[in-house]
Amino acid sequence: MSTKEKVLEKLVIEEDVLKENEIVLYNDDVNTFDHVIETLIIACDHTPLQAEQCSLIVHYKGKCTVKTGAYDDLRPRCEKLLEEGLSAEIV
């Protein structure tokens, strides 16, 4: 009988994890669906379908992440949403 040794090697992987920021859009009782949809298309480069879906999520759930990415890319997009009277923040 022979004995075989099993050697377990530990592999350590270091990753640079980039933190993705998010623009969160909040529900309000002021803006119409059409205004929210049009603004998401312009400010966040959404397709009409994406913008419509986000507006429905915001309406029924109270908030929705509408864009993720680097802070430098999200800041002007969030500012555009705010200028158009929407409630949004970068988290």
From TrEMBL:
BP GO annotations = protein catabolic process; proteolysis
UniProt keyword Cytoplasm present: no
Upper lineage: Bacteria, Pseudomonadati, Bacteroidota, Flavobacteriia, Flavobacteriales
Q: What keywords appear on the UniProt entry?
A: Hydrolase, Protease
Q: Which InterPro entries match?
A: ClpS_core, Ribosomal_bL12_C/ClpS-like
Q: Does the keyword Metal-binding apply?
A: no
Its recorded name reads ATP-dependent Clp protease adaptor ClpS
A Gene Ontology MF term for this entry?
peptidase activity
Q: Where is the Adaptor protein ClpS core domain?
A: 21-83
Instruction: Show the Gene3D superfamilies listed in the entry.
Output: 3.30.1390.10
